[in-house]
Amino acid sequence: MSKTVCLIAAVIAAGLMTGCQEETKDERGIRVRPDRMYESPAYRSQQVVERRIGSPDGNGGTAVSLKVAPSVLEPVPGTVARGVETYALDAKDVALAAKLQNPLLPTTQVLKAGARHYRILCSTCHGADGDPTTAPINDFLPAPPLNDVNVTALSDGQIQHIIARGRARMPGFSAQIPLTDRWAVVLYLRALSRAAIASKDVAKVLAAAENELRLYPDKPDVQTKVKEAKSLLEQREADLKAIKAVSAEAAAVFLPAPEPKPEWEQAGWPQPSTKP
């Protein structure tokens, strides 16, 4: 009987000694202070995150909660992505942003770069042609159009600032579009807006000015109006031509690859020349 009691006591003592041993991190139960270096609260890939977006433009807009994808999230505060230019202005610095000058010229290469970023990140809400009614995301409160006076009423710096920091329901894209490419998007929007307006009413404005010139051929202000209308029409027709060239080149990216040519060609008699 005493041997049995001793055996039970030995087993209990061994169990107590084992229980007093230090547990590894894999064996912990309730964590009073979780070890974040060991188990971090990471997001899953492409996980939608809810963000509170206000109205940084100061127009009295109502802040709303939006569910956004990781592709439109800004970097962690205090960090800078490698190879990305920093943008010091805050969302509320609209007056300072209006004074910024666009360092780029509307060349074909610049318009192509602007069109590429516009099609990737902007056309889903604003439409490929600037008309939000043709956009894939067209809910009960669509985005404002970008092919009318909404663009002409803003300076280049203001448009670039809106792209970088967002406005109303629109999030900022400073982390997705570098500063130089944002200026390219601004020039593309300028050309897109002028081209769209040109197809609508510039010809009517010129016709009305010419009719007025027939009635008052000696008035300098009427002559100036006709001259400005002609210059504006020529500029917007050039923009429309550039936009069509950029759109055609961008659309070619989505065309299927041509069929590969065979390495050999069937032999045949040479055809006689039809030239005299």
Distance between the termini: 128 Å
Low-confidence stretches: none
In terms of DSSP E residues, the strand content is: under 5%
Order of helices and strands: HEEHHHHHH
What's the helix count?
7
Quaternary status of these chains? single chain
Strand order of the largest sheet: 1-2
User: What is the average per-residue confidence, as pLDDT, rounded to a whole number?
Assistant: 75
Please give the largest β-sheet: 2 strands, antiparallel
What would you say about this model in short?
The chain is 45% helix and 4% strand. The protein has helices at residues 2-19, 94-98, 108-126, 149-152, 156-165, 179-215, 220-251, and strands spanning 49-53, 64-68.
Structural commentary:
There is one protein chain. This protein is mainly alpha-helical and 276 residues long. The protein has a domain at 51-71 and 84-254. The protein is built from seven helices and two strands; from the N terminus they run αββαααααα. The protein has helices spanning 2-19, 94-98, 108-126, 149-152, 156-165, 179-215, 220-251; strands at residues 49-53, 64-68. The chain has a two-stranded antiparallel sheet with strand order 1-2. Helix 6 runs antiparallel to helix 7. The chain starts with a helix and ends in a 25-residue tail after the last helix. The mean pLDDT is 75.
Secondary structure blueprint with pairings:
Elements: H1 2-19, E1 49-53, E2 64-68, H2 94-98, H3 108-126, H4 149-152, H5 156-165, H6 179-215, H7 220-251
Antiparallel strand pairs: 1-2
